[in-house]
Amino acid sequence: MTHQMTDASQLSYRRYKDGDAKVTNWQDEIFQAGWSHKCPTYVHRTPPCQASCPSGHDIRGWLDIVRGVDKPPQGMSWQEYAFRKMTTANPFPAVMGRVCPAPCEDGCNRNEVEDHIGINSVEHYIGDWALANKLAFPKPAKESGKTVAVIGGGPAGLSAAYQLRKQGHAVTIFDEHAELGGMMRYGIPGYRTPRTVLDGEIARILDMGVTAKMKCRIGRDLSLAELEKAHDAIFWAIGTHSGRPLPVPGADAPNCITGVDFLRAFNQGRLKHVAQRIIVVGGGDTSIDVASVARRLGHITQVHDKDRVENVVLGQTAHDVAATARREGAQVVLTSLFPVEKMMAAEREVNDATREGVAIKGGIMPLEVLKGPDGRARGLKMCRCTMDGMNPIPEAGTEFEIEGDLIVSAIGQKGDLDGLEALDNGKGFINADKHFRVPGKPKHFVGGDIVRPHLLTTAIGHGSIAAEGIATFLAGGEFGKRPKVDVHHFNMIDTLREMGRAPERFAGEGIRGTDESKVAVHNYEDRSASEVVPADHLFLGHFTFTPRHKRDEIHIGADRVIGNFEERLVALAEERVVAEAKRCMSCGLCFECDNCLVFCPQTAVSRVKKSDRALGRYVETDYAKCIGCHICRDVCPSGYIQMGLGE
Ligand SMILES: Cc1cc2nc3c(=O)[nH]c(=O)nc-3n(C[C@H](O)[C@H](O)[C@H](O)COP(=O)(O)OP(=O)(O)OC[C@H]3O[C@@H](n4cnc5c(N)ncnc54)[C@H](O)[C@@H]3O)c2cc1C
Ligand code: SF4
Ligand code: SF4
After folding, report:
1. Of the candidates 528, 558, 581, which is a domain's last residue?
2. pLDDT (tens digit, 9 = 90+) per residue, 116-126?
């Protein structure tokens, strides 16, 4: 059979490809009624979006709320209900919605239809709505009497503090900076994480009764021993604040600095302008932020010694604001070992930086910092390279020079463990077991970049799992296994319990089968802790081609970038957020489409009676009528039905 389609790009799913001519006898495929003992069972699995989110968000759950499948309790708006569900895993929806590179979207099954769900943009909208409507987290109902010290008030520390406080533990965060936020404040610039947004989301955690002791460095202002004596458990979330210098000769020149030091000085408001020609070596998030900030700051021609960038960055001095009136554009070159299309930084950030005038050069490696007679760097000797995994292989005979007045190394960081040597694993990091406990130190837990540098959402996920471990430790419980799919799972039994309809306690004796008894949810199985539902379990033909609702972006041209610190990403409006959530295919859980009801030739499928309905508990099968034809399974869009030996 040949289809005449005018616009093939509009197809979402095709059972037959062009040229398919073989006739399939569907009768044999479907009707096995005479002998099939298999009937539909309802199997909850984790959707791949959630499995790819390092903080384990119940994404399908909050999209179900936004699209109206899961209704809020009486008196609560859907936005608040979605916010409550979202923040069980991650208390920073407005920050995530802006700067999380959204690995969840790469994992989304809808990519197999036309494009992923705009998960991150829904998070952005809900996060902003919650701030605008001043939603607060509830204070714990009772105090546990236990005290936990959290060292470091970045995303990992704040996430753990939030989860622990929910359980009534007294939490004190110690941080060496003047303000909380870690790299969300001292790394990422304010045009990406606006400070009002950050302050609002942090204040919500503090308002639960979390104490913060700022400008207090553990290992200097307070010793490890003092800390241990005063607290029942300790969570280390100190991040990686020690930038790596370039591993080439000449990198000790005074005007060779690191990206984290550069950004800290900028975010503290001390750095107001930069040098005329800057070379940033990196390719990840930090290098893009350095280059983009440098383009925004520009340079001034008359520079006094004290105003040199390196003196401000390393010397705790500050630039004079008046000088900013005379700023001119800085020439910024960003170099990366990987080719541009394979750079670590998020694609959107790379595109913005290019548009804003950063010259990005991929596939090259530094060989030497070239110094002038005054001992200062005057440029970089570089060559072309290929990558063998993470190792650059230089290409002989391709050497060249780039001139620069400032060289910024943004090639990675490690922990600053001064005074905390007892925790150092010898490589500038702290080891963790699968519960995020420090091996051999029962009272100590650790998470975030200091274990493995990655993303904000990863640090938040670590904080949440560590908080579970700390709670187990404080209660004197046993540390069991972590689930294979380690996320914040939807639990139907909890929902039924809230409705007063949970299964009865299993008495044990004399039960054969569960269809008549009430000790289980009839023919429902929760495999979410061990299985992720792939796209080929879904009936993709149910979903028509629907383009993603994309957020608007404010693009800033190279000629307008100096002094422009405006946000670039515009949140979706309410109707578009709802429309976007409606694109979700609800992988692994029923979304009440009625296909199974409509297509069952035996009318064996019916809706569960209204008072017993819950999310995922919408239809049931009469096995006396079911002939095992598996049509319901074939037409279930979300892959929720599996033929099994039901009774
Ligand atoms: C420039 C830059 C841009 C980035 N952009 C993104 C992005 O767009 N998206 C994304 O998802 N991720 C991004 N990341 C990564 C992300 O910021 C980190 O993964 C995340 O912040 C790690 O969180 P953390 O809590 O482990 O550590 P941090 O955020 O580093 O917080 C650690 C805190 O511990 C404090 N501290 C350290 N030592 C001590 C001590 N001894 N005593 C007391 N306090 C101490 C520090 O002051 C700090 O506040 C970026 C990182 C950088 C550097
Ligand atoms: S935190 Fe990041 S990965 Fe997780 S749901 Fe949000 S955008 Fe996706
Ligand atoms: S379609 Fe929905 S449930 Fe499925 S992976 Fe994408 S966001 Fe998740």
Report:
1. 581
2. 999 999 999 99
What's the per-residue H, E or C state across 117-137? CCHHHHHHHHHHHHHHCCCCC
The verdict on residue 82 lying in a domain is: yes
Whether 168 and 227 map to the same domain: the answer is yes
Cα(646)–Cα(116) distance, integer angstroms = 35
DSSP structural state of residue 42 = E
Look at residue 526 and tell me if it is in a domain. yes
Strands 605-607 and 569-570: unpaired
Nearest-atom index, ligand 1, CA of 240: 30
Q: What is the pLDDT of residues 199-234, one digit of tens each?
A: 999 999 999 999 999 999 999 999 999 999 999 999
Tens-digit pLDDT profile for residues 571-622: 999 999 999 999 999 999 999 999 999 999 999 999 999 988 889 999 999 8
Q: Are 524 and 635 contained in the same domain?
A: yes
**CA 284 to centroid of ligand 1, rounded, Å:** 14
Q: Closest ligand 3 atom, CA of 589?
A: 3
CATH number, domain with residue 390: 3.50.50.60
Q: Which ligand is nearest to the CA of 116?
A: 3
Q: Whose CA is nearest to atom 6 of ligand 3?
A: 108
In a domain, 210, yes or no: yes
Q: What are phi and psi of 367, to 5 degrees?
A: -110, -35
pLDDT score for 4 = 37
Residues 6+ apart with CB under 8 A from 7: none
Instruction: Report the pLDDT value the prediction gives residue 514, as an integer from 0 to 100.
Output: 59
pLDDT of residue 2: 36
pLDDT band at 41 (very low <50, low <70, confident <90, very high): very high
Closest ligand, as measured to the CA of 48: 3
Q: Whose CA is nearest to atom 4 of ligand 3?
A: 587
CA 105 – CA 101 distance, rounded (Å):
9
Domain total of the chain = 4
Tell me: do 332 and 369 sit in the same domain. yes
pLDDT digits (tens, 9 = 90+) for 417-458: 999 999 999 999 999 999 999 999 999 999 999 999 999 999
Residue 455 Cβ inside 6 Å of ligand 2? The answer reads no
- List beta partners, residue 391: 388
How many angstroms separate the alpha carbon of residue 452 from the centre of ligand 1? 11
> Is residue 58 within 6 Å of ligand 2 at its C-beta?
no
8 A C-beta contact, residue 343 and residue 319: no
CA of 111 to the centre of ligand 3 (A): 9
Q: How far is the CA of 63 from the centre of ligand 1 (A)?
A: 29
Q: Write phi, then psi, for 387 (nearest 5 degrees).
A: -110, 135
**Of 85, 200, 131, 124, which is closest to residue 573 (Cα–Cα)?**
124
Ligand 1, closest atom to CA 159? Answer: 25
Does 359 score more than 90 pLDDT? yes
Distance from Cα 462 to the centre of ligand 1, integer Å: 13
Domain containing 572 equals 55-135+549-581
Check if 60 has its Cβ closer than 6 Å to any atom of ligand 3: yes
Q: Which of 2-6, 271-275, 407-411, 504-508 has the lowest mean pLDDT?
A: 2-6
The residue whose CB lies within 8 Å of the most ligand 3 atoms, and thus the one to mutate among 12, 85, 109, is 109
The answer to whether the CB of 161 is under 6 A from ligand 3 is no
484 is a domain residue: no
Among left, alpha and beta (phi > 0; psi -120 to 50; other), residue 558 is alpha
The residue type at 200:
G
pTM: 0.93
Which ligand has the nearest atom to the CA of 109? 3
Phi, psi (deg, nearest 5) at residue 468: -65, -45
